[in-house]
Amino acid sequence: MRRLFPILDWGPQYDRAALGNDLLAALIVTIMLIPQSLAYAMLAGLPPEVGLYASIAPLVLYALFGTSRTLAVGPVAVISLMTAAAIAPLVATGMADQLGAAVALAVLSGLILLAMGLLRLGFIANFISHPVISGFITASGLLIAAGQFPALAGLSVRGETLPHLIGAIWQKAPEASLTTLGVGLPVLAFLVWTRSHLRPLLLKVGVAPRLAGVLSRAAPVLAVVATTLASWGLQLDLPVVGDIPRGLPLPTLPPLDPALWQAILLPAALISLVGYVETISVAQTLAAKRRQRIDPDQELVALGIANLGAGFSGGFPVTGGFARSVVNFDAGAETPAAGAFTAAGMALATLFLTPLLYHLPKATLAATIIVAVLSLVDLSALRRVAQISRSDFLAMLATILLTLIAGVEAGISAGVILSILLHLWRSSRPHVAVVGQVPGTEHFRNVARHHVITAPGVLSLRIDESLYFPNARFLEDRLLAALAEEPGLRHVVLICAAVNAIDTSALETLEALNARLRDGGVTLHLSEVKGPVMDRLLRSHLRTELSGQVFLTHYDAMMALAPEVTRACHDAARCETARARAAR
Amino acid sequence: MRRLFPILDWGPQYDRAALGNDLLAALIVTIMLIPQSLAYAMLAGLPPEVGLYASIAPLVLYALFGTSRTLAVGPVAVISLMTAAAIAPLVATGMADQLGAAVALAVLSGLILLAMGLLRLGFIANFISHPVISGFITASGLLIAAGQFPALAGLSVRGETLPHLIGAIWQKAPEASLTTLGVGLPVLAFLVWTRSHLRPLLLKVGVAPRLAGVLSRAAPVLAVVATTLASWGLQLDLPVVGDIPRGLPLPTLPPLDPALWQAILLPAALISLVGYVETISVAQTLAAKRRQRIDPDQELVALGIANLGAGFSGGFPVTGGFARSVVNFDAGAETPAAGAFTAAGMALATLFLTPLLYHLPKATLAATIIVAVLSLVDLSALRRVAQISRSDFLAMLATILLTLIAGVEAGISAGVILSILLHLWRSSRPHVAVVGQVPGTEHFRNVARHHVITAPGVLSLRIDESLYFPNARFLEDRLLAALAEEPGLRHVVLICAAVNAIDTSALETLEALNARLRDGGVTLHLSEVKGPVMDRLLRSHLRTELSGQVFLTHYDAMMALAPEVTRACHDAARCETARARAAR
């Protein structure tokens, strides 16, 4: 029960102090969330109220089921972009209207997340590697910014890929409105400035650090208020948010067309995975700061239920947002109740504030989106990753380029598939080193890197990887090649110190190798076999059929197979002579 | 050049002795191959001459390009079954006739194999694990036998799955012919008897062991001759092979319908992979006996060209056969020229022998197939695999059941996908052990398995796996859970002795963990880091940001972090007292 309802953990100890802190945090987050919700609904190509609706029911549900004390869920930039991309073809083919498609997407994402959580399949998210998710977020940020820049000039441009967007902007550029630009650009400049300069300024004038952090993140609210007043007071002629229906969201049912559900299966799965990866990463960062615990499987359940709530209340897919969660945390939220209070705040806003938002310029929302997403863009990560791993770099580059050129679904899918294939490819070619004795010691090192002595007729191979079916045949090829190339070969010793695990394929390969080497007059030995590997060896045919022995240490093996050379090598000076004598 | 034309290796040294040996081997293999080729064409649902054609051009081409000296290619049982399964739906939907579909299948398999060889993608075949291929072959053997048993009674039954076959047999049973059964059952009994008893008998009467082996495998030829004579001489009324067109195969072009090629893409890919896995395993077994070398990538090229040859000469997919290769080897074949001579023998057979095969009873061919495939069935492997690994057992069982119930394509695909998923799942949960000091030593062991001493406030975790994206998050969850559970925790030391490699995702996870643990007041240390992993650590942010140290040995780490307990533990008697004192 406690696992499924984390509220049982913190509910009973809830007191007045926590209530005060949670209420204050909720107030601040609500103020920040109103323009964000409108902006992300706009980004997803949906009516503004949908953004508000997505910030009510999901928050209450997450508060009941989530294990993070401070995570704030709701519409976020990348998921809104993915929603826009998923909806567009459905609307274009007339399969559903925008709202119906969005609701179906939220419900299906919710079901997928819930199923993954109940079946404990959270590990599936592991297969989105860091370089892939980071490349995807960078490319999404670029795509979002490219789509929102025109809105600063009053242009409404849509497109799922960079080439489309550029083409559309090129075509519509003549229609740019200077009035809108006159609002949009200053807001953008102001927001960019506040990103880096407001917090230091506030600190300098003596504001407490935590409050300064919260205030500097609330700058978009200031921009919203100022430009709404200007647009209304000066009767400016620019695109504004306009009428938002007042009132709470009504229960909504998604369209029940099977073709629609089939069409959104992949997008919904991708939205679920990307949203989950983001959520868990934010939640864990915040939880660690207070030494709290996140249960990744329960987070899936909570996020799933939150998305079901979003769908059935006429919203669109939601996830844990980084910026708003940090504000919630910094503002002092202590329990998930803060989320429920935020939901109440958003509900009040839909009831009473929407008329005030009529004159809010769309350009202001575009500017807040641009500033929010440009902080997601991190192209320098490409260079960092390139320094560490070539295959990670490849996967990341492919993700970025494909996301930009072919869209979000193609980008993230290709990245995931490519990184899994590269991973399998790498693990199919384990590092295997021929080793020899370091003169004057009982140690053995790679012959290619160190001055070491090898005994004639004995091949010592160190396997630097667990042995399983993707790499079993590689070892076989390697050993059979050695067999064909070295006519004087009598013994092969496999050093298994780094073999953490072995599977049936690898065991059978070893059995076959053992037989083939024996047919070729070569004895197969093993050394430094770990416990779990030895357990399995003993249950295989090798227990009785291994032509050679299993040695505890490789030094023992060499003492048994080439005693003169090995013993002589203990004395560094005598090494070469002993080897030369043995080779004759 | 030599890599692409292995004939350049052995051609120049070809002499009269080798010629004699190769000619004798070719003669024996030809005699064995004639009934086999007819039988496997029948199994694939094709006219008998197609089997003969598939045993001419492919053999010559493999002799030119293959790296195995003794591998004999041609039609084999499992690939013939897969061909039958691939062709059936195409014929049923009228997309192609049987021969056209078979030819297209051979050409496409050839192209796939050739491309894999030229692009050096042979490693893809690694992903068919041993339990999956062994389960698949067992299930195929059962399917083939179930399809051939009715032919012993003169019934012609076709079906792609066991339920279909059983249903068809049930329906047709009343039509069973006693005459046919009177030929089929004795032949079957004779062949089963020769399998186990002929060779010992021949050895007892003084036949040389190698010759005895060859003769006992030629028993089907005796059955063919005897029953053909009986059928002709006694004018028996039973299904016979009938008219086989005389003459060499003519150049054939596959149908060019794009829909057909798309429909056979998956079957052709599966036939290629299964055929390749079988070929390489036979070739390596034989090559090792003579310490010869197989080049797996070149084998792909050779097998690809052989299949192209099969297709363009009106044959069906071929691969390296186990039984015939062993006969070739035992009969003394020295070079691939033996294969070319076999091809010449088969060509002569199509020119002059086909009238003699008119009266060959189909029941005899069915019996030879049954005996050949029953040796492939190895259900005891299930028990063996179960003892070694549960996930391998699951993959094998799924392969067998799905192959029997849903057909060969579903079976092998499901097996491969399941084993890759299980592999990824396993590698996403690496073995991680909390370790403590063995009293009186500098060694550290799993606290769950040994009596060891842990120092208060220090968590020592040994990671028994390389760190990469599939398992990065697992480590994170594990450590953050420890952080939340142990309020007194001050230091975490990760023992990386078994971490053979690390990727960007894992490095970034460590960076995040480092920051999160630091936020929670815990210092992160590493010990026993391997060279390649250290190289990457030094290129990441961890180089400057690691809150703790990197220790050469774990003992060093513990001496630095908990010196009293660790030093005291060197003396087994003082361990507990030191620990108790430190915990106060």
From TrEMBL, chains A, B:
Membrane-spanning regions, if any? 23-44, 50-65, 72-92, 98-119, 131-156, 176-193, 214-234, 259-279, 300-318, 338-358, 365-382, 394-422
**Location in the cell:** Membrane
Q: Which residues form the STAS domain?
A: 448-561
Decide whether keyword Magnesium is in the record.
no
Q: Which CDD domains match?
A: STAS_SulP_like_sulfate_transporter (cd07042)
As for membrane topology, the entry says: Multi-pass membrane protein
> Which UniProt key words apply to this protein?
Membrane, Transmembrane, Transmembrane helix
Please give the chief subcellular localization of this protein.
membrane
Q: Can you name one GO molecular function term for this protein? A: secondary active sulfate transmembrane transporter activity
Q: What is the recorded name of this protein?
A: Sodium-independent anion transporter
